[in-house]
Amino acid sequence: MTDVIPSFASTGLDPALLAALSAQGIAEPFPIQSATLPDSLAGRDVLGRGRTGSGKTLAFGLPLLHRTAGRRARAGRPLALVLVPTRELAQQVTAALSPYARAVGLRCATVVGGLSLHRQAETLRAGVEVLVATPGRLHDLINRGDARLDQVQVTVLDEADQMADMGFLPQVTKLLEQVAPDGQRMLFSATLDGGVDRLVRRFLSDPVSHSVDPGTATVTAMSHHVLHVDPAEKSAAVTQIAAREGRTILFLGTKHRADRLARQLLARGVRAAALHGGKSQPQRTRILEQFRTGLVTTLVATDVAARGIHVDGLDLVVNVDPPTEAKDYLHRGGRTARAGQAGRVVTLVVPEQRRDVSRLMATAGIRPESVQVRSGDDALARLTGAREPSGVPVTIAPPAPAAANRPASGRATGGATDGDGRQVGRPTHRASGRSRRPRRPRRD
User: Fold this and answer.
1) Which of 437, 429, 438, 425 has the alpha carbon at shortest distance from 136?
2) 440 occurs within a structural domain
3) Could you tell me whether strands 298-301 and 184-188 are parallel, antiparallel, or unpaired per DSSP bridges?
4) CA-CA distance, 432 to 417, in Å (whole number)?
C-alpha cells in the first residue's frame, strides 16, 4: 500500500485538474482521497471502503479523468465507466465530475432509466469519454446496439453494496465481463456483504484495499440520539420537528406513509414534500431542487433516497420509522455531517421498538444519547429545534411533467429502480429514422 499524500499537488495530477480543484475551492484531499490516489493514479485496482459523504467521488473521479485525458471516444464506445445504483446518485456523480471533465476536455454523460431512451442513445452515438450509468438502462442501450464497452479502460463501481441490495449484481457482472479485460477497476462500498466480495474476487486484480473508515464507522461531527416517545405523542412530536428552522429529512418505511405524512405536514403549515420510488424521475429531480433551494424545508423520504441525496448544510436526519438494518441506519444518517460538517441523527422509538433499535445501534457501533420526550417539551426542542407549526396550510407547486424529456444540461439524465419494488419512469420514444423496438420490462 502506497503512503498517503499530503496534497493534491504532490500526486502528479494533470495540471488542468489541479487548477479545477483550486477553482472549486478544494485545497486539501480528504482522507480517502489521500489514501487511494497514489494507487489509483498508478493504474492499480482499488477496493475502497468508506462511509457515505467521505469524498469517494473525487477519490475515483480524479484518477479516472487523469488516466482518460487526451483520448477521444468513438461513437457509442466510452472509455471510462462509473456504475451506480440509483438515478439520484448518478446525477450527483455527474454533477461532481463535470467541471473536472471539462477542464481536461472530456465529454461526460449520464444514462439511466426514467427519461428518453432515444435521446440517451443519440448522446452515446455522438461520442462520450466518461459514462455514468445505472446497470439496467446501460444493458438496454447495449442490447439495442447503441453502446459497447470493449474500449472501457477504467471502470468504477460506486455504492456496490447498495447495488447488491437492489438485486443488480447479475447485471453488474454481465457489464464487467464486457469491459476491456486489461483495464483498471475501482470498487467503492461501505460493506463487502451481499455478494460484493465475489465481485472483488472475480474482477479486481491484486487490488489495493483502503479502509479509511470501518464499515460501521460514523464521524465525530455526527451525534446520535434515540428519543423514546409514547405512541399517542409521536405524531405531534414529528410535526413539531418538521416545523423547525432549516432543512430536515424525515425517513419513513413506505412510500404510502411518506405521502400521507407530507400531506399532513402541508396541512399544518410545513413546507414538506415526499420523495420515493413512486415518483417519476422528473418529479424526483424537481423535488430535490426545491429542497436544495429551500422552497421545500422538510423532505419525507423512503430508503430509495437514502444514498442519492446530497444537500450542503443539512444538519438533521430523523428516523420516524427506525430502519431494520444497521447499514440502512448508516446510509440514512450519511445525508448529514458530510465533508466534515456537523450533523445530528434522531430516531423516534415507541416502547415496542426499544429492543430492536438497541440491537441495531449495537450492530452499527453507535452509542446514542437516549432521552424520553413528549411533544412540546424542552428536551425535544433542545435536540431537534422542534416548534409549533403555523397551522396555516401551504401549497407547493407539484413538479411539472413537461420536464420529463428536457434535461437541463442537454445530456441524458435519469434514474434507477425505485427501491420500493415498483417500476417507474418508463422511457419515451421520439420519432426517428429507426424502427421502433418493442418495449422491454424496466430493470433500472
Assistant:
1) 425
2) no
3) unpaired
4) 27
User: What backbone torsions phi and psi does residue 404 show, to the nearest 5 degrees?
Assistant: -55, -35
Q: What are the tens digits of pLDDT across the range 346-367?
A: 999 999 999 999 999 888 888 8
**pLDDT tens across 202-244, in order?**
999 999 988 765 444 344 467 899 999 999 999 999 999 999 9
At which of 211, 246, 266 does a domain end? 211
Give the number of other Cβ atoms within 10 Å of residue 225's Cβ.
18
Q: What is the mean pLDDT of residues 331-358?
A: 81
CB 281 within 8 A of CB 308: no
Closest CA to 182 of 154, 148, 209: 154
**Number of Cβ within a 10 Å radius of residue 359:** 11
Range of the domain at 199: 8-211
**Alpha carbon of 15 to those of 11, 27, 34, 41, 60: distances in Å?**
10, 14, 17, 14, 17
Q: How confident is the model at residue 307 (pLDDT cuts 50, 70, 90)?
A: low
Please check whether residue 426 lies inside any domain of the structure. no
* For helices 354-364 and 326-333, angle between their N-to-C axes, nearest 10 degrees: 70
Q: Do the domain assignments include residue 401?
A: no
Q: Which residue has the cell 412510500?
A: 255
* Dist. CA 122–CA 143, nearest whole Å: 15
Last residue of a domain, one of 384, 400, 420: 384
Rounded Cα gap, residues 258 and 262, in angstroms: 6
Burial class (CB in 10 A: 0-12, 13-18, 19+), 206: exposed
* In a shared domain, residues 91 and 181: yes
Confidence bin at 153 (pLDDT 50/70/90): very high
Whether pTM exceeds 0.85: no
Sign of torsion over alpha carbons 185, 190, 196, 202: positive
Which helix (H) or strand (E) segment holds residue 408: the answer is: none
Q: Is the dihedral of CA 397, 409, 62, 204 positive or negative?
A: positive
DSSP string spanning 78-118? -SEEEE-SSHHHHHHHHHHHHHHHHHTT--EEEE-BTS-HH
Cβ atoms 84, 159 nearer than 8 A: yes
Number of folded domains that form the chain: 2
Count of residues making up the chain: 444
- The residue to which cell 494507487 is assigned: 39
